[in-house]
Specification:
Elements lengths: L9 E3 L12 H5 L15 E5 L5 E5 L2 E2 L21 E3 L3
Antiparallel strand pairs: 1-5, 2-3, 3-4
Amino acid sequence: LTNTAGMTLYVFDKDSAGKSACNGDCAVKWPPLIAAGNDKASGDYSIINRDDGARQWAFKGKPLYLWFKDQKPGDNSGDGVNNVWHTARP
């Protein structure tokens, strides 16, 4: 899965369905895919509320993130980081 700019999206094994466990410094390295105020959930995509009050996109209940080291569309250097981050797949 990618965002609208073609950047790879990731999921985090430590998240529970509908709840992000990645906050603070974690969210600096793994920026959450933020939902705009007027975005609406559809199909397998839902919107969860983060601890900081932001709204984050989730796929099949798993919150979605970017990876700060990916520089261009198609990069997926975050896949397998610490064996808990994985490329989000349909």
